[in-house]
């Protein structure tokens, strides 16, 4: 969790469901085929059901990343919106460690949510931010989840953002993760699609698979086609970009936002938002200008 304390933004500063729908339609018309709701926690919004309803009518692949706490409560809405994929953020399989990390006694509720999603035929992915001396001893425990369940466990290299106290020696790299897995299992690499951000692997005979998002040790910037719209209507052309384009203000003033979208995409830096280059061990996190991860959306 970031060091800073955050208050919820006033509703007037956030995109409203109709505004989200309007911007989403513009992107869909431009060729976007997949939209993911993320956060922070997208399902904490009181109007989450309405947002799901509106986006579910756009004819695109709809996905969501959530902490899993409200999955059971909002299951009918997730089904009605035809959400295809649900990513559950879960950094540990130890209940006591979970409570220490999240400061919430909700481990069993998250486990229940995963079971409910599998029972209802959602594609389930588990997002695990790997950190040395925190959860790197659980790598193979997470891989074991894929033995009998059609789950993709996604190990994410720890990335520097405002307030998360990042240091390079906390990063568990792609190579280190694969070496640890191979102490117990054989593995095979799965086909890699052009715009995949994750390198995917499978244990022979297992039902599911695992993947590694190697942002720090093996960046994939040249093939990344993601673009992010924050809850307060700012467009970011890269997760690490310090620059933002205020679509919400322009939309509320009646401007045509399509030129703003195009110029933002064309201004994308060659790699990692233009904030750092070279090996990640040389990154000075104090010099990075960006939001916290929870206000960007991963």
TrEMBL record:
SMART domains: Elp3 (SM00729)
The organism of origin for this protein: Chryseobacterium hagamense
Cofactor: [4Fe-4S] cluster
Superkingdom of origin: Bacteria
Keywords: GTP-binding, Iron, Iron-sulfur, Metal-binding, Molybdenum cofactor biosynthesis, Nucleotide-binding, S-adenosyl-L-methionine
SUPFAM superfamilies: Radical SAM enzymes (SSF102114)
PANTHER family in the record: MOLYBDENUM COFACTOR BIOSYNTHESIS PROTEIN 1, MOLYBDOPTERIN COFACTOR SYNTHESIS PROTEIN A
Annotated protein name in UniProt: GTP 3',8-cyclase
Parts forming coiled coils: none
Entry's Gene Ontology BP terms: Mo-molybdopterin cofactor biosynthetic process
GO terms for MF: 4 iron, 4 sulfur cluster binding; cyclic pyranopterin monophosphate synthase activity; GTP 3',8'-cyclase activity; GTP binding; metal ion binding
Keyword Aminoacyl-tRNA synthetase in annotation: no
InterPro entries the UniProt entry points to: Aldolase_TIM (IPR013785), Elp3/MiaA/NifB-like_rSAM (IPR006638), MoaA_twitch (IPR010505), MoCo_biosynth_MoaA/MoaC (IPR050105), rSAM (IPR007197), rSAM_sf (IPR058240)
PROSITE patterns listed in its UniProt record: RADICAL_SAM
Encoding gene, per UniProt annotation: moaA
Annotated Radical SAM core domain residues: 1-198
């Amino acid at each position: 969790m970031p060091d800073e304390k955050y208050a919820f933004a006033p509703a007037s500063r956030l995109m409203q469901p109709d505004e989200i729908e309007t911007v989403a339609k513009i992107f869909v018309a431009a060729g976007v085929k997949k939209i993911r709701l993320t956060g922070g926690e997208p399902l904490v919004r009181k109007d989450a059901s309405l947002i799901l309803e509106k986006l579910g009518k756009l004819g695109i692949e709809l996905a969501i990343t959530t902490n899993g706490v409200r999955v059971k409560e909002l299951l009918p809405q997730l089904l009605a919106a035809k959400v295809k994929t649900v990513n559950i953020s879960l950094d540990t399989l130890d209940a006591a460690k979970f409570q220490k990390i999240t400061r919430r006694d909700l481990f069993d509720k998250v486990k229940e949510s995963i079971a409910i999603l599998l029972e209802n035929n959602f594609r389930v992915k588990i997002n695990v931010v790997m950190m040395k001396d925190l959860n790197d001893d659980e790598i193979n425990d997470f891989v074991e989840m894929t033995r009998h369940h059609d789950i993709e466990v996604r190990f994410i290299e720890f990335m520097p953002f405002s307030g998360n106290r990042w240091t390079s020696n906390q990063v568990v790299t792609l190579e280190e993760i694969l070496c640890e897995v191979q102490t117990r299992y054989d593995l095979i690499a799965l086909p890699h699609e052009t715009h995949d951000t994750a390198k995917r692997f499978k244990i022979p005979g297992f039902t599911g698979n695992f993947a590694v998002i190697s942002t720090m040790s093996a960046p994939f910037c040249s093939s990344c086609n993601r673009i992010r719209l924050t809850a307060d209507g700012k467009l970011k052309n890269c997760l690490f970009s310090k620059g933002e384009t205020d679509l919400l203000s322009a939309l509320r003033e009646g401007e045509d936002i399509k030129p703003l979208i195009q110029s933002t995409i064309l201004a994308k830096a060659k790699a990692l938002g233009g904030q750092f280059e070279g090996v990640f061990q040389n990154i000075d996190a104090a010099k990075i200008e960006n939001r916290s991860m929870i206000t960007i959306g991963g």
